[in-house]
Amino acid sequence: MTAPLVLGIETSCDETGVGIVRGSTLLANVIASSMDEHARYGGVVPEVAARAHLEALRPTLEAALEQAGVALGEVDAIAVTSGPGLAGALMVGLGAAKALAMALDRPLYAVNHLVGHVGVDLLDPEPLELPAIALLVSGGHTSLLRVRSLTDDVELLGETIDDAAGEAFDKVARLLGLPYPGGPQIDRAAVGGDPAAIRFPRGLTHPKDLERHRYDFSFSGLKTAVARHVEAARDRGEEVALADVAASFREAVADVLTAKAVRACHELEIPRLLLGGGVVANARVRELAAERAAAAGIELRIPPLALCTDNGAMIAALGAALVARGRPPSPFDVPADSTLPVGTVLC
Amino acid sequence: MLLAIDTSAGTAVAVVDRAGAILAERADAATRRHVEVVGDLLRAALAEAGIGASEITGVVAGMGPGPFTGLRVGIAAARAFAFGVGCPVVPVVSHDAVALGRAEPVVVATDARRRELAVSHYGPPDAGGLPARLAGPELVPAGPIEVPIGATLLEVSEIPAGALGALGARLLELGRRLGPGEPLYLRAPDVTLSAGPKRVTA
Protein backbone atom coordinates (compact mmCIF):
# COMPACT_ATOMS: atom_id res chain seq x y z
CA MET A 1 0.00 0.00 0.00
CA THR A 2 1.34 3.44 -0.88
CA ALA A 3 1.27 6.21 1.68
CA PRO A 4 -1.83 8.44 1.64
CA LEU A 5 -1.88 11.43 -0.67
CA VAL A 6 -3.12 14.36 1.42
CA LEU A 7 -3.97 17.89 0.36
CA GLY A 8 -3.70 20.52 3.10
CA ILE A 9 -5.37 23.94 3.16
CA GLU A 10 -4.21 26.72 5.46
CA THR A 11 -5.99 30.10 5.77
CA SER A 12 -5.58 31.07 9.41
CA CYS A 13 -3.95 34.46 8.83
CA ASP A 14 -2.77 36.31 5.73
CA GLU A 15 -1.31 33.38 3.79
CA THR A 16 -3.41 31.14 1.57
CA GLY A 17 -1.43 27.92 1.63
CA VAL A 18 -2.04 24.66 -0.20
CA GLY A 19 0.33 21.78 0.28
CA ILE A 20 0.33 18.21 -0.96
CA VAL A 21 2.20 15.33 0.63
CA ARG A 22 2.37 11.62 0.07
CA GLY A 23 2.92 10.21 3.54
CA SER A 24 5.98 12.10 4.71
CA THR A 25 7.12 13.17 1.27
CA LEU A 26 6.52 16.78 0.29
CA LEU A 27 5.10 17.11 -3.23
CA ALA A 28 3.91 20.72 -3.29
CA ASN A 29 3.91 23.82 -1.13
CA VAL A 30 2.25 26.86 -2.71
CA ILE A 31 1.53 30.07 -0.84
CA ALA A 32 -0.33 33.20 -1.88
CA SER A 33 0.21 36.02 0.58
CA SER A 34 -1.89 39.15 1.03
CA MET A 35 0.92 40.79 2.99
CA ASP A 36 1.32 43.64 0.52
CA GLU A 37 -2.33 44.59 0.97
CA HIS A 38 -1.80 44.91 4.73
CA ALA A 39 1.43 46.89 4.53
CA ARG A 40 -0.20 50.32 4.45
CA TYR A 41 -2.21 49.50 7.56
CA GLY A 42 0.87 48.40 9.51
CA GLY A 43 -0.57 44.98 10.33
CA VAL A 44 -2.89 42.24 9.13
CA VAL A 45 -6.46 43.47 8.62
CA PRO A 46 -8.70 40.43 9.16
CA GLU A 47 -11.35 41.39 6.61
CA VAL A 48 -8.76 42.17 3.97
CA ALA A 49 -7.09 38.82 4.64
CA ALA A 50 -10.37 36.91 4.42
CA ARG A 51 -11.31 38.54 1.11
CA ALA A 52 -7.89 37.71 -0.29
CA HIS A 53 -8.22 34.04 0.74
CA LEU A 54 -11.44 33.68 -1.22
CA GLU A 55 -9.78 35.04 -4.36
CA ALA A 56 -6.54 33.11 -3.93
CA LEU A 57 -7.98 29.74 -3.05
CA ARG A 58 -8.62 28.27 -6.47
CA PRO A 59 -5.42 29.50 -8.15
CA THR A 60 -3.43 28.21 -5.17
CA LEU A 61 -5.12 24.80 -5.37
CA GLU A 62 -4.41 24.62 -9.10
CA ALA A 63 -0.78 25.62 -8.66
CA ALA A 64 -0.26 23.04 -5.91
CA LEU A 65 -1.68 20.19 -7.99
CA GLU A 66 0.47 21.26 -10.91
CA GLN A 67 3.58 21.43 -8.72
CA ALA A 68 2.84 17.99 -7.23
CA GLY A 69 2.09 16.51 -10.62
CA VAL A 70 -1.02 14.77 -9.33
CA ALA A 71 -4.68 14.91 -10.29
CA LEU A 72 -7.25 16.03 -7.75
CA GLY A 73 -8.98 12.66 -8.03
CA GLU A 74 -5.90 10.90 -6.68
CA VAL A 75 -6.08 12.78 -3.36
CA ASP A 76 -6.97 10.41 -0.49
CA ALA A 77 -7.87 12.98 2.18
CA ILE A 78 -8.32 16.71 2.72
CA ALA A 79 -6.69 18.38 5.71
CA VAL A 80 -7.52 21.93 6.75
CA THR A 81 -6.65 24.35 9.53
CA SER A 82 -9.71 24.88 11.73
CA GLY A 83 -7.90 27.00 14.34
CA PRO A 84 -6.41 28.88 16.03
CA GLY A 85 -6.38 31.96 13.81
CA LEU A 86 -8.54 34.76 12.45
CA ALA A 87 -12.13 33.49 12.46
CA GLY A 88 -13.21 34.98 9.13
CA ALA A 89 -10.04 33.77 7.43
CA LEU A 90 -10.34 30.26 8.89
CA MET A 91 -13.92 29.99 7.65
CA VAL A 92 -12.91 30.47 4.02
CA GLY A 93 -10.52 27.52 4.13
CA LEU A 94 -12.80 25.35 6.21
CA GLY A 95 -15.88 26.04 4.08
CA ALA A 96 -13.90 25.24 0.95
CA ALA A 97 -12.36 22.11 2.47
CA LYS A 98 -15.74 20.70 3.45
CA ALA A 99 -17.14 21.24 -0.04
CA LEU A 100 -14.01 19.79 -1.63
CA ALA A 101 -14.17 16.71 0.61
CA MET A 102 -17.83 16.31 -0.32
CA ALA A 103 -17.18 16.77 -4.04
CA LEU A 104 -14.37 14.19 -3.99
CA ASP A 105 -16.05 11.92 -1.44
CA ARG A 106 -12.93 11.93 0.71
CA PRO A 107 -12.47 12.25 4.49
CA LEU A 108 -11.85 15.65 6.08
CA TYR A 109 -9.24 16.23 8.78
CA ALA A 110 -9.66 19.58 10.55
CA VAL A 111 -6.40 20.15 12.37
CA ASN A 112 -4.63 22.53 14.71
CA HIS A 113 -2.53 25.21 13.05
CA LEU A 114 0.11 25.31 15.79
CA VAL A 115 0.57 21.55 15.82
CA GLY A 116 0.92 21.84 12.04
CA HIS A 117 3.99 24.01 12.58
CA VAL A 118 5.49 21.13 14.55
CA GLY A 119 4.17 18.48 12.15
CA VAL A 120 6.09 19.99 9.28
CA ASP A 121 9.17 18.29 10.71
CA LEU A 122 7.69 14.95 9.61
CA LEU A 123 8.68 15.99 6.09
CA ASP A 124 12.33 15.91 7.10
CA PRO A 125 14.01 12.63 6.12
CA GLU A 126 15.00 12.25 9.77
CA PRO A 127 12.26 13.73 11.93
CA LEU A 128 13.20 14.94 15.37
CA GLU A 129 12.85 12.27 18.00
CA LEU A 130 9.98 12.81 20.47
CA PRO A 131 9.40 14.08 23.05
CA ALA A 132 10.61 17.47 21.88
CA ILE A 133 10.16 21.10 22.83
CA ALA A 134 8.76 23.38 20.13
CA LEU A 135 9.02 27.16 20.06
CA LEU A 136 6.54 28.70 17.62
CA VAL A 137 6.96 32.39 16.97
CA SER A 138 5.01 34.45 14.46
CA GLY A 139 3.00 37.63 14.12
CA GLY A 140 0.06 35.92 15.79
CA HIS A 141 1.61 33.38 18.14
CA THR A 142 4.44 32.93 20.61
CA SER A 143 4.07 29.48 22.11
CA LEU A 144 6.27 26.97 23.81
CA LEU A 145 5.07 23.37 23.52
CA ARG A 146 6.03 19.97 24.81
CA VAL A 147 5.32 17.39 22.11
CA ARG A 148 5.17 13.77 23.20
CA SER A 149 3.10 12.60 20.24
CA LEU A 150 2.16 14.74 17.26
CA THR A 151 -1.19 13.10 16.89
CA ASP A 152 -2.18 12.63 20.52
CA ASP A 153 -0.13 14.51 23.04
CA VAL A 154 0.84 18.14 22.62
CA GLU A 155 1.00 20.29 25.72
CA LEU A 156 1.16 24.07 25.96
CA LEU A 157 3.95 25.03 28.34
CA GLY A 158 3.57 28.75 27.88
CA GLU A 159 2.61 31.49 25.47
CA THR A 160 2.61 35.25 25.18
CA ILE A 161 0.36 37.01 27.65
CA ASP A 162 0.10 40.10 25.42
CA ASP A 163 1.70 40.76 22.02
CA ALA A 164 3.15 38.03 19.84
CA ALA A 165 6.86 38.43 19.10
CA GLY A 166 6.22 39.17 15.42
CA GLU A 167 3.69 41.79 16.43
CA ALA A 168 6.34 43.42 18.63
CA PHE A 169 8.67 43.59 15.62
CA ASP A 170 5.88 45.24 13.58
CA LYS A 171 5.02 47.76 16.30
CA VAL A 172 8.62 48.70 17.02
CA ALA A 173 9.34 49.04 13.30
CA ARG A 174 6.43 51.43 13.08
CA LEU A 175 7.59 53.64 15.91
CA LEU A 176 11.02 53.73 14.31
CA GLY A 177 9.38 54.88 11.08
CA LEU A 178 10.08 51.60 9.28
CA PRO A 179 7.52 49.86 7.04
CA TYR A 180 5.58 46.62 7.60
CA PRO A 181 6.43 43.79 8.07
CA GLY A 182 8.78 44.78 10.85
CA GLY A 183 10.98 41.70 11.17
CA PRO A 184 13.11 42.09 8.03
CA GLN A 185 13.13 45.88 8.46
CA ILE A 186 14.51 45.64 12.00
CA ASP A 187 17.04 43.07 10.81
CA ARG A 188 18.24 45.50 8.14
CA ALA A 189 18.29 48.49 10.47
CA ALA A 190 20.24 46.53 13.08
CA VAL A 191 23.22 45.97 10.79
CA GLY A 192 26.28 47.50 12.47
CA GLY A 193 24.27 48.33 15.62
CA ASP A 194 25.41 47.42 19.11
CA PRO A 195 23.00 44.85 20.64
CA ALA A 196 24.25 45.83 24.11
CA ALA A 197 23.87 49.59 23.58
CA ILE A 198 20.53 49.76 25.38
CA ARG A 199 19.46 47.20 27.95
CA PHE A 200 15.79 46.78 27.03
CA PRO A 201 13.66 44.70 29.43
CA ARG A 202 13.30 40.94 29.08
CA GLY A 203 9.62 40.26 29.86
CA LEU A 204 8.67 37.72 32.54
CA THR A 205 12.23 36.76 33.41
CA HIS A 206 12.41 38.07 36.98
CA PRO A 207 12.38 35.32 39.62
CA LYS A 208 8.96 36.43 40.90
CA ASP A 209 7.51 36.36 37.36
CA LEU A 210 9.06 32.98 36.69
CA GLU A 211 6.96 31.46 39.45
CA ARG A 212 3.72 32.15 37.67
CA HIS A 213 4.92 32.57 34.11
CA ARG A 214 7.82 30.19 33.87
CA TYR A 215 7.39 29.56 30.14
CA ASP A 216 5.19 32.51 29.23
CA PHE A 217 6.30 35.53 27.23
CA SER A 218 5.48 39.23 27.28
CA PHE A 219 6.55 41.78 24.68
CA SER A 220 4.24 44.67 25.42
CA GLY A 221 6.57 46.20 28.04
CA LEU A 222 9.52 45.86 25.70
CA LYS A 223 7.68 47.72 22.97
CA THR A 224 6.80 50.51 25.42
CA ALA A 225 10.42 50.69 26.61
CA VAL A 226 11.59 51.18 23.03
CA ALA A 227 8.93 53.86 22.53
CA ARG A 228 10.08 55.68 25.70
CA HIS A 229 13.68 55.51 24.59
CA VAL A 230 12.87 56.90 21.16
CA GLU A 231 10.64 59.65 22.55
CA ALA A 232 13.24 60.69 25.11
CA ALA A 233 15.89 60.97 22.42
CA ARG A 234 13.61 63.01 20.19
CA ASP A 235 12.55 65.23 23.11
CA ARG A 236 16.21 66.03 23.71
CA GLY A 237 16.47 66.94 20.07
CA GLU A 238 18.82 64.06 19.43
CA GLU A 239 18.91 61.75 16.47
CA VAL A 240 17.68 58.25 17.37
CA ALA A 241 20.56 55.79 17.07
CA LEU A 242 18.53 53.56 14.78
CA ALA A 243 21.02 50.73 14.38
CA ASP A 244 21.66 50.50 18.13
CA VAL A 245 17.96 50.65 19.02
CA ALA A 246 17.05 48.04 16.41
CA ALA A 247 19.92 45.74 17.42
CA SER A 248 19.17 46.12 21.14
CA PHE A 249 15.47 45.51 20.69
CA ARG A 250 16.08 42.47 18.51
CA GLU A 251 18.55 41.15 21.05
CA ALA A 252 15.97 41.45 23.82
CA VAL A 253 13.43 39.44 21.78
CA ALA A 254 15.93 36.80 20.69
CA ASP A 255 17.31 36.53 24.21
CA VAL A 256 14.04 35.91 25.97
CA LEU A 257 12.70 33.55 23.28
CA THR A 258 15.76 31.33 23.22
CA ALA A 259 16.44 31.52 26.98
CA LYS A 260 12.96 30.25 27.81
CA ALA A 261 13.07 27.54 25.16
CA VAL A 262 16.45 26.31 26.37
CA ARG A 263 15.26 26.51 29.98
CA ALA A 264 12.29 24.28 29.08
CA CYS A 265 14.57 21.77 27.37
CA HIS A 266 16.82 21.75 30.41
CA GLU A 267 14.17 21.60 33.13
CA LEU A 268 12.02 19.03 31.39
CA GLU A 269 15.08 17.04 30.39
CA ILE A 270 14.22 17.05 26.71
CA PRO A 271 17.34 17.89 24.70
CA ARG A 272 15.51 18.49 21.43
CA LEU A 273 14.15 21.84 20.23
CA LEU A 274 12.17 22.64 17.11
CA LEU A 275 11.61 26.22 15.90
CA GLY A 276 8.68 27.31 13.76
CA GLY A 277 6.77 30.41 12.66
CA GLY A 278 7.65 33.44 10.57
CA VAL A 279 9.88 35.07 13.20
CA VAL A 280 12.32 32.21 12.71
CA ALA A 281 13.25 34.06 9.52
CA ASN A 282 15.00 36.52 11.82
CA ALA A 283 18.72 35.92 11.54
CA ARG A 284 19.53 36.83 15.14
CA VAL A 285 16.83 34.54 16.56
CA ARG A 286 18.24 31.63 14.58
CA GLU A 287 21.82 32.49 15.45
CA LEU A 288 21.23 32.80 19.19
CA ALA A 289 19.11 29.64 19.23
CA ALA A 290 21.93 27.73 17.52
CA GLU A 291 24.54 29.14 19.89
CA ARG A 292 22.60 28.35 23.05
CA ALA A 293 21.38 24.96 21.88
CA ALA A 294 24.93 23.93 21.06
CA ALA A 295 26.18 25.15 24.43
CA ALA A 296 23.46 23.21 26.23
CA GLY A 297 23.81 20.04 24.17
CA ILE A 298 20.37 20.45 22.64
CA GLU A 299 19.59 19.15 19.18
CA LEU A 300 18.12 22.11 17.30
CA ARG A 301 15.82 21.74 14.31
CA ILE A 302 14.88 24.68 12.09
CA PRO A 303 12.79 23.73 9.06
CA PRO A 304 13.43 25.48 5.72
CA LEU A 305 11.94 28.96 5.80
CA ALA A 306 9.10 28.19 3.34
CA LEU A 307 7.95 25.56 5.82
CA CYS A 308 8.42 27.82 8.88
CA THR A 309 5.99 30.51 7.78
CA ASP A 310 2.32 29.57 7.48
CA ASN A 311 1.83 26.97 4.77
CA GLY A 312 -0.46 24.19 3.63
CA ALA A 313 2.27 21.53 3.49
CA MET A 314 2.47 21.40 7.28
CA ILE A 315 -1.29 20.89 7.46
CA ALA A 316 -1.09 18.13 4.86
CA ALA A 317 1.82 16.51 6.73
CA LEU A 318 -0.10 16.49 10.00
CA GLY A 319 -3.17 15.20 8.18
CA ALA A 320 -1.14 12.38 6.63
CA ALA A 321 0.20 11.40 10.07
CA LEU A 322 -3.37 11.26 11.41
CA VAL A 323 -4.49 9.15 8.45
CA ALA A 324 -1.51 6.83 8.87
CA ARG A 325 -2.35 6.31 12.53
CA GLY A 326 -5.92 5.42 11.67
CA ARG A 327 -7.52 8.39 13.41
CA PRO A 328 -11.17 8.93 12.45
CA PRO A 329 -11.82 11.99 10.27
CA SER A 330 -13.48 15.14 11.59
CA PRO A 331 -17.26 15.41 11.76
CA PHE A 332 -18.69 17.50 8.97
CA ASP A 333 -20.12 20.08 11.37
CA VAL A 334 -16.68 20.96 12.76
CA PRO A 335 -16.54 24.72 13.45
CA ALA A 336 -13.72 27.20 12.91
CA ASP A 337 -12.25 27.90 16.35
CA SER A 338 -10.14 31.04 16.56
CA THR A 339 -8.82 30.05 20.00
CA LEU A 340 -8.45 26.30 19.46
CA PRO A 341 -6.23 24.98 22.28
CA VAL A 342 -3.02 23.31 21.23
CA GLY A 343 -4.03 20.11 23.05
CA THR A 344 -6.68 19.56 20.38
CA VAL A 345 -4.66 18.24 17.44
CA LEU A 346 -7.62 16.98 15.43
CA CYS A 347 -11.12 18.46 15.72
CA MET B 1 -27.79 18.43 -12.39
CA LEU B 2 -26.98 21.72 -10.63
CA LEU B 3 -26.05 22.35 -7.04
CA ALA B 4 -27.00 25.73 -5.54
CA ILE B 5 -25.39 27.23 -2.44
CA ASP B 6 -26.22 30.51 -0.74
CA THR B 7 -24.96 31.83 2.59
CA SER B 8 -25.90 35.47 2.16
CA ALA B 9 -28.54 35.15 4.91
CA GLY B 10 -28.81 31.70 6.49
CA THR B 11 -27.33 28.66 4.78
CA ALA B 12 -29.32 27.26 1.86
CA VAL B 13 -28.47 24.38 -0.44
CA ALA B 14 -30.44 22.80 -3.27
CA VAL B 15 -30.13 20.35 -6.13
CA VAL B 16 -32.03 21.17 -9.31
CA ASP B 17 -32.11 19.50 -12.69
CA ARG B 18 -31.17 21.20 -15.93
CA ALA B 19 -34.79 22.24 -16.45
CA GLY B 20 -34.81 23.97 -13.08
CA ALA B 21 -36.99 21.44 -11.24
CA ILE B 22 -36.05 21.27 -7.56
CA LEU B 23 -34.92 17.77 -6.51
CA ALA B 24 -33.80 18.63 -3.00
CA GLU B 25 -33.66 21.73 -0.84
CA ARG B 26 -32.08 22.10 2.58
CA ALA B 27 -31.66 25.19 4.73
CA ASP B 28 -30.61 26.37 8.15
CA ALA B 29 -31.79 29.85 9.09
CA ALA B 30 -29.00 30.56 11.60
CA THR B 31 -27.04 33.58 10.43
CA ARG B 32 -23.75 32.83 12.18
CA ARG B 33 -23.29 29.11 11.70
CA HIS B 34 -22.63 28.84 7.98
CA VAL B 35 -19.34 27.01 8.19
CA GLU B 36 -20.72 24.54 10.72
CA VAL B 37 -23.81 23.57 8.72
CA VAL B 38 -22.78 23.87 5.07
CA GLY B 39 -21.12 20.45 4.88
CA ASP B 40 -24.02 18.51 6.33
CA LEU B 41 -26.55 20.44 4.24
CA LEU B 42 -24.60 19.58 1.08
CA ARG B 43 -24.50 15.94 2.05
CA ALA B 44 -28.20 15.86 2.90
CA ALA B 45 -29.24 17.62 -0.30
CA LEU B 46 -27.24 15.27 -2.51
CA ALA B 47 -28.62 12.26 -0.62
CA GLU B 48 -32.21 13.50 -0.92
CA ALA B 49 -31.73 14.09 -4.63
CA GLY B 50 -30.29 10.58 -4.81
CA ILE B 51 -27.21 11.59 -6.76
CA GLY B 52 -23.47 11.48 -6.32
CA ALA B 53 -21.30 14.57 -6.33
CA SER B 54 -19.88 13.64 -9.74
CA GLU B 55 -23.32 14.04 -11.33
CA ILE B 56 -23.26 17.77 -10.58
CA THR B 57 -22.48 19.69 -13.77
CA GLY B 58 -22.63 23.22 -12.41
CA VAL B 59 -22.62 24.95 -9.03
CA VAL B 60 -24.83 28.01 -8.67
CA ALA B 61 -23.34 30.40 -6.13
CA GLY B 62 -25.31 33.13 -4.37
CA MET B 63 -22.91 36.08 -4.59
CA GLY B 64 -24.76 38.24 -2.10
CA PRO B 65 -25.35 40.87 -1.01
CA GLY B 66 -24.86 39.64 2.54
CA PRO B 67 -22.74 40.00 5.66
CA PHE B 68 -19.10 39.34 4.69
CA THR B 69 -18.05 36.47 6.87
CA GLY B 70 -21.02 34.25 6.19
CA LEU B 71 -21.33 35.17 2.52
CA ARG B 72 -17.76 34.04 1.86
CA VAL B 73 -18.36 30.57 3.31
CA GLY B 74 -20.94 29.72 0.64
CA ILE B 75 -18.90 31.17 -2.20
CA ALA B 76 -15.78 29.34 -1.00
CA ALA B 77 -17.80 26.12 -0.77
CA ALA B 78 -19.36 26.63 -4.21
CA ARG B 79 -16.01 27.32 -5.84
CA ALA B 80 -14.32 24.40 -4.08
CA PHE B 81 -17.11 21.97 -4.93
CA ALA B 82 -17.02 23.05 -8.57
CA PHE B 83 -13.24 22.68 -8.58
CA GLY B 84 -13.59 19.26 -7.00
CA VAL B 85 -15.97 17.87 -9.60
CA GLY B 86 -14.51 19.90 -12.46
CA CYS B 87 -17.60 21.90 -13.38
CA PRO B 88 -18.26 25.62 -13.79
CA VAL B 89 -19.51 28.04 -11.11
CA VAL B 90 -22.65 29.94 -12.04
CA PRO B 91 -22.63 33.18 -10.02
CA VAL B 92 -26.04 34.69 -9.32
CA VAL B 93 -27.13 37.79 -7.38
CA SER B 94 -28.87 36.32 -4.33
CA HIS B 95 -31.75 38.82 -4.49
CA ASP B 96 -32.58 37.63 -8.00
CA ALA B 97 -33.60 34.26 -6.55
CA VAL B 98 -36.22 36.00 -4.40
CA ALA B 99 -37.60 37.92 -7.36
CA LEU B 100 -37.76 34.85 -9.60
CA GLY B 101 -41.31 33.86 -10.54
CA ARG B 102 -42.97 37.14 -9.54
CA ALA B 103 -45.16 38.55 -12.29
CA GLU B 104 -45.25 42.07 -10.84
CA PRO B 105 -42.44 44.53 -10.04
CA VAL B 106 -40.83 43.77 -6.69
CA VAL B 107 -38.40 45.27 -4.22
CA VAL B 108 -36.21 42.72 -2.45
CA ALA B 109 -34.71 43.69 0.90
CA THR B 110 -32.41 41.72 3.18
CA ASP B 111 -30.67 42.54 6.44
CA ALA B 112 -27.20 44.03 5.94
CA ARG B 113 -26.55 44.53 9.68
CA ARG B 114 -25.33 47.83 11.15
CA ARG B 115 -28.83 49.25 10.81
CA GLU B 116 -28.80 48.95 7.06
CA LEU B 117 -30.68 46.93 4.50
CA ALA B 118 -29.52 45.63 1.15
CA VAL B 119 -32.17 46.50 -1.45
CA SER B 120 -32.75 45.61 -5.13
CA HIS B 121 -35.51 46.92 -7.40
CA TYR B 122 -37.04 44.76 -10.13
CA GLY B 123 -39.43 45.53 -12.96
CA PRO B 124 -41.75 42.91 -14.46
CA PRO B 125 -39.87 39.80 -15.59
CA ASP B 126 -38.09 40.00 -18.93
CA ALA B 127 -39.09 38.12 -22.09
CA GLY B 128 -37.26 35.05 -20.87
CA GLY B 129 -39.21 35.10 -17.61
CA LEU B 130 -36.15 36.12 -15.65
CA PRO B 131 -36.00 38.83 -12.98
CA ALA B 132 -35.21 42.24 -14.47
CA ARG B 133 -33.18 44.11 -11.88
CA LEU B 134 -33.50 47.85 -12.43
CA ALA B 135 -31.42 49.05 -9.49
CA GLY B 136 -29.31 47.62 -6.74
CA PRO B 137 -28.36 45.77 -4.80
CA GLU B 138 -27.45 48.75 -2.68
CA LEU B 139 -27.39 49.67 0.99
CA VAL B 140 -30.08 51.88 2.51
CA PRO B 141 -30.70 52.86 6.15
CA ALA B 142 -32.95 50.42 8.00
CA GLY B 143 -36.54 51.67 8.26
CA PRO B 144 -39.40 52.11 5.83
CA ILE B 145 -38.40 51.21 2.29
CA GLU B 146 -39.60 53.24 -0.64
CA VAL B 147 -41.69 50.95 -2.82
CA PRO B 148 -42.93 52.14 -6.23
CA ILE B 149 -46.69 52.03 -6.83
CA GLY B 150 -47.69 48.61 -8.10
CA ALA B 151 -44.59 46.93 -6.73
CA THR B 152 -44.49 44.40 -3.93
CA LEU B 153 -41.99 44.58 -1.09
CA LEU B 154 -40.28 41.27 -0.36
CA GLU B 155 -38.35 41.70 2.86
CA VAL B 156 -36.86 38.30 3.46
CA SER B 157 -34.55 36.64 5.96
CA GLU B 158 -33.76 33.59 3.82
CA ILE B 159 -32.66 33.10 0.23
CA PRO B 160 -34.38 30.11 -1.40
CA ALA B 161 -31.62 27.91 -2.81
CA GLY B 162 -34.11 26.03 -5.00
CA ALA B 163 -35.03 29.26 -6.79
CA LEU B 164 -31.35 30.19 -6.98
CA GLY B 165 -30.64 26.87 -8.67
CA ALA B 166 -33.62 27.21 -11.00
CA LEU B 167 -32.42 30.67 -11.97
CA GLY B 168 -28.94 29.32 -12.65
CA ALA B 169 -30.43 26.59 -14.83
CA ARG B 170 -32.41 29.16 -16.85
CA LEU B 171 -29.36 31.40 -17.26
CA LEU B 172 -27.33 28.47 -18.58
CA GLU B 173 -30.16 27.35 -20.86
CA LEU B 174 -30.57 30.82 -22.34
CA GLY B 175 -26.81 31.37 -22.53
CA ARG B 176 -27.28 34.57 -20.60
CA ARG B 177 -24.63 36.65 -18.97
CA LEU B 178 -24.24 35.31 -15.46
CA GLY B 179 -24.02 37.23 -12.22
CA PRO B 180 -20.98 38.95 -10.73
CA GLY B 181 -17.75 36.98 -10.51
CA GLU B 182 -16.88 38.57 -7.20
CA PRO B 183 -18.85 38.71 -3.94
CA LEU B 184 -21.27 41.61 -3.49
CA TYR B 185 -19.91 42.87 -0.19
CA LEU B 186 -21.28 46.42 -0.73
CA ARG B 187 -18.94 47.70 1.95
CA ALA B 188 -15.20 48.26 2.09
CA PRO B 189 -13.31 46.43 4.84
CA ASP B 190 -13.46 48.15 8.23
CA VAL B 191 -10.10 49.71 8.52
CA THR B 192 -8.71 53.18 8.96
CA LEU B 193 -5.18 54.26 8.30
CA SER B 194 -3.36 54.99 11.51
CA ALA B 195 -2.24 58.55 12.22
CA GLY B 196 1.06 57.12 13.47
CA PRO B 197 2.25 55.72 16.78
CA LYS B 198 0.86 57.33 19.94
CA ARG B 199 3.22 58.78 22.53
CA VAL B 200 3.75 56.57 25.56
CA THR B 201 5.46 59.20 27.70
CA ALA B 202 3.59 62.23 28.99
Structure description:
The complex is a heterodimer of chains A (347) and B (202). Chain A has helices spanning 35-39, 46-68, 87-104, 113-119, 165-175, 182-189, 207-212, 220-235, 242-267, 283-296, 305-308, 312-324, and strands at residues 5-10, 15-22, 25-33, 77-83, 108-112, 132-137, 142-149, 153-159, 272-276, 299-301. With 347 residues, chain A is of the alpha/beta class. Chain A folds into two domains: 5-122 and 307-324, ATPase, nucleotide binding domain (Nucleotidyltransferase, domain 5, 2-Layer Sandwich), CATH 3.30.420.40; 131-302, ATPase, nucleotide binding domain (Nucleotidyltransferase, domain 5), CATH 3.30.420.40. In chain A, strands 3-2-1-4-5 form a five-stranded mixed β-sheet, sandwiched between helices. Chain A has a five-stranded mixed β-sheet with strand order 8-7-6-9-10, with helices on both faces. In chain A, helix 3 links the parallel strand 4 and strand 5. Chain B has 202 residues and is α/β, with parallel strands linked by helices. Chain B has a single domain, classed as Nucleotidyltransferase, domain 5, CATH 3.30.420.40. Chain B has helices spanning 34-49, 68-85, 94-99, 161-174; strands spanning 2-6, 11-16, 22-28, 58-62, 89-92, 106-111, 116-123, 132-141, 152-155. Chain B has a five-stranded mixed β-sheet, sandwiched between helices. In chain B, strands 8-7-6-9 form a four-stranded mixed β-sheet. In chain B, strand 2 and strand 3 (22-28) form a beta hairpin. The longest helix of chain B is centred in the middle third of the chain and has 18 residues, at 68-85. The model of chain B has no long low-confidence stretch (mean pLDDT 95).
